[in-house]
């Protein structure tokens, strides 16, 4: 009887993480080497194909991304909006100052405001009353002679026509109502101090001013923004940068000609009505 001298088949046990034993190797496998079961090979093939599909998909997406230009980031941009107020004193001053002029009439100095795109200037009548020559100095420093086009001494309002206009003419915005307690700004040339501004509030409405031998003035705006000689004819402005009045007087019980906290302005509607006849703003 012959002895079978074939080497014994060595079985290699493959242990999974779960501790279970792998199935025996297939018949015919070389000694010392275990083969994956047919089921496991199929599973590995499926996993390999799935992984390759993921790689291919990633490459396609990446290539597509590289082929398209990157969208530029959209920066936020401010959207314009109407400044219906309230504005601060610096904004009001900056908006209206280009419309304010200095008036020199003989030995008198006062203020005026450009009220129309044709250069028409509104001021207080007493600033130019009886003057032989009138000179207006615009905000840019240029000067021009001027003449009185219309006047209403009863309302202390005059309209001037300048001989020349500034290189850039900026008429003021006229209109708007004034209410007690509303903030107001005055711009003028008090005591020769050019382009000065002060602020305060409307202190009262429908005030009457006793002018001695002249008829009283009624319907005035009382305010407490500081004004002094030289401020006459300047604009009284609300917090929307609208001219609501023309400064004409200050309370002067001591004859000192200095401000004691009470100023008066003709409402802009009355000022325009005094020189236009219908109370309407001149066309711009």
From TrEMBL:
It comes from the Bacteria. Pfam families: Trypsin_2 (PF13365). Coiled coil: none annotated. One of its GO terms (molecular function) is serine-type endopeptidase activity. The chain crosses the membrane at residues 44-62. Keywords: Hydrolase, Membrane, Protease, Transmembrane, Transmembrane helix. GO terms for biological process: proteolysis. InterPro entries: Chloro_Bact_Ser_Proteases (IPR051201), Peptidase_S1_PA (IPR009003), Peptidase_S1_PA_chymotrypsin (IPR043504), Peptidase_S1C (IPR001940). The keyword Transmembrane helix applies. The keyword Flavoprotein does not apply. Belongs to the peptidase S1C family. This is S1-C subfamily serine protease.
């Amino acid at each position: 009887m012959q002895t079978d001298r074939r080497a014994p088949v060595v079985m290699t046990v493959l242990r999974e993480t779960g501790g279970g034993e792998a199935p025996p190797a297939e018949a015919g496998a070389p000694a010392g080497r275990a083969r994956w079961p047919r089921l496991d090979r199929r599973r590995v093939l499926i996993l390999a194909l799935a992984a390759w599909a993921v790689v291919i998909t990633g490459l396609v997406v990446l290539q597509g991304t590289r082929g398209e230009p990157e969208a530029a980031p959209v920066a936020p941009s401010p959207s314009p909006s109407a400044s219906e107020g309230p504005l601060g004193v610096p904004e009001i001053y900056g908006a209206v100052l280009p419309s304010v002029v200095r008036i020199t009439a003989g030995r008198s100095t006062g203020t005026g405001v450009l009220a129309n795109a044709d250069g028409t200037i509104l001021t207080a009548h007493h600033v130019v009353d009886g003057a032989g020559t009138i000179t207006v100095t615009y905000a840019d420093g240029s000067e021009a002679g001027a003449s009185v086009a219309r006047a209403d001494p009863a309302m202390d309002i005059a309209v001037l026509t300048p001989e020349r206009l500034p290189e850039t003419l900026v008429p003021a915005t006229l209109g708007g109502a004034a209410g007690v307690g509303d903030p107001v700004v005055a711009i003028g040339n008090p005591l020769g101090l050019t382009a000065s501004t002060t602020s305060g509030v409307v202190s009262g409405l429908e005030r009457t001013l006793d002018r001695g031998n002249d008829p009283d003035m009624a319907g005035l705006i009382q305010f407490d923004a500081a004004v002094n000689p030289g401020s006459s004819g300047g604009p009284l402005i609300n917090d929307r940068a609208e001219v609501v009045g023309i400064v004409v007087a200050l309370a002067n019980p001591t004859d000192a000609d200095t401000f004691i906290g009470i100023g008066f302005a003709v409402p802009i509607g009355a000022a325009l009505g005094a020189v236009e006849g219908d109370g309407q703003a001149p066309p711009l």
